[in-house]
Write a structure and sequence with these properties.
By secondary structure, this protein is of the alpha/beta class. The protein has twelve helices and 14 strands. The protein is 31% helix and 23% strand. An eight-stranded mixed β-sheet has the order 7-8-10-9-11-12-13-14, with helices on both faces.
């Protein structure tokens, strides 16, 4: 006689399967939100300010301990200071160089946030500049123009998503030194320009059209050749422009800082520590019809096809940190290795995403000026030599070495 199936066991099994599915679904949704959401800006307390000595003391946080130079925003974003090297640190605080205060009363600040902009307008460089409007298919967008050289060679600077033109100001000295006129335009959806036809992911395939409009503006201003410089997802916009623009014949080179060359891999890297199947499921959720429910509309990376090095027909300089935290460095290395005839990669170590200049401006500017001058000896030295690190970029080397021995904070 056949054994009788216990219906109670079937109910229990079905319940366990359903519970497991619910747990997996909840983990997938949570991972998707983590992958889609920009990393929150962390507040750092201000312990004391000595304007006469040019120093400021912060509470010890991952941001205040970073070597290099940064913007520090306080008074709910109304105040701005420029902060330099770490001069000393202990368990109670971090003493840093105070380079200058541009707006607000830093002495009365209680806390603030670091970022990599450093400058607010081209006026910081004490060079002539002008504000203009660039006509795009979505309307006029604001732009800065800093004249340089003989006015025939231009550089168009393209900031990343979730940022604005100030991000790109750091590049002006190097480009002026190379004899370039610099154009820094806004583009659709960045808060300064019209939103345009943004998709639900807030990442469109149309920003390159605005960069093309900037190139046309440069041509009207006397340019005969243009270099495009892009940060993060701005680098992918630059690549799209070089591939698709009607005036791409005037583009003579690309500089890519912390480039997001593969949006899917950049998202997956944000889910590190979670099992691979869950991360893949989260990626599918973000790119599907329910993506908005888990924050896909806040994405600041591109979800299109990975950049194809086979499509390149102009020289490219890639500036990439091995500790980027957003754009996986292995993707940049594969991109460069696929086209050694056109792509030169200069590595950095210890820099966060798009903060390579902040860690070591001399290395960043040296790489850009050498590449523009086709100085292969200098580029060979920078590409193969010791990358900038926390211990080489900061005057307080012993403190930096102690920090290197601690677990690295999440980027």
């Amino acid at each position: 006689m056949a054994g009788r199936v216990d219906p109670g066991r079937g109910v229990v099994a079905a319940g366990l399967v359903a519970a497991g599915a619910l747990v997996t679904g909840a983990l997938t949704a949570r991972t998707a939100r983590r992958m889609a959401s920009p990393r929150p800006q962390r507040a750092t307390a201000v312990r004391s300010v000595d304007l006469a000595a040019g120093t400021v003391r912060f509470a010890p946080t991952p941001d205040s301990l970073l070597p290099g130079r940064y913007s520090f925003w306080f008074a709910e974003g109304r105040g701005h200071a420029r902060v330099g090297a770490v001069l000393g640190s202990d368990t109670d605080g971090v003493l840093r160089e105070l380079i200058g205060v541009d707006t607000g009363d830093l002495a009365s600040a209680r806390e603030g946030r670091f970022n990599g902009w450093m400058y607010l307008t081209p006026a910081a460089f004490e060079v002539p500049f002008r504000s203009e409007r660039v006509q795009t298919t979505q309307g006029a967008v604001p732009a800065w123009i800093v004249p340089g050289g003989d006015g025939t060679r231009w550089a168009v600077l393209v900031h990343g998503r979730s940022s604005v033109r100030q991000e790109a100001l750091r590049a002006i000295p190097a480009l002026l030194a190379a004899g370039r006129t610099v154009l820094l335009p806004a583009y659709r959806g960045d808060g300064e320009a019209p939103d345009g036809d943004a998709t639900r992911y807030a990442v469109t395939d149309a920003e390159w059209v605005d960069v093309e409009s900037a190139i046309l503006h440069a041509l009207d201003g006397g340019a005969t050749e243009v270099v495009l410089v892009g940060w993060s997802s701005g680098a992918s916009i630059v690549l799209a422009t070089a591939h698709r623009s009607r005036v791409r014949e005037v583009i003579t080179g690309l500089v890519l800082d912390s480039p997001v060359l593969d949006g899917a891999q950049a998202l997956l890297s944000r889910g590190k520590g979670v099992p691979e199947p869950v991360r893949r499921g989260a990626l599918s959720l973000l790119t599907g019809p329910w993506g908005r429910l888990v924050g896909a509309d806040a994405l600041d990376v591109r979800l299109g096809d990975p950049a194809d090095p086979a499509e390149l027909d102009v020289p490219v300089l890639v500036l990439q940190s091995e500790d980027d935290g957003v754009a996986p460095p292995e993707v940049a290395h594969r991109f460069a290795e696929a086209r050694p005839d056109l792509v030169r990669l200069v590595p950095f170590v210890g820099a966060r995403h798009t903060r390579l200049w902040n860690l070591d401006p001399e290395r960043w500017e040296g790489a850009v000026t050498a590449w523009l001058a086709d100085d292969r000896f200098a580029l060979d030295r920078l590409s193969a030599g010791e990358p900038a690190t926390a211990s080489t970029a900061d005057p307080s080397r012993r403190a930096a070495a102690r920090r290197e021995s601690r677990p690295r904070p999440a980027l």
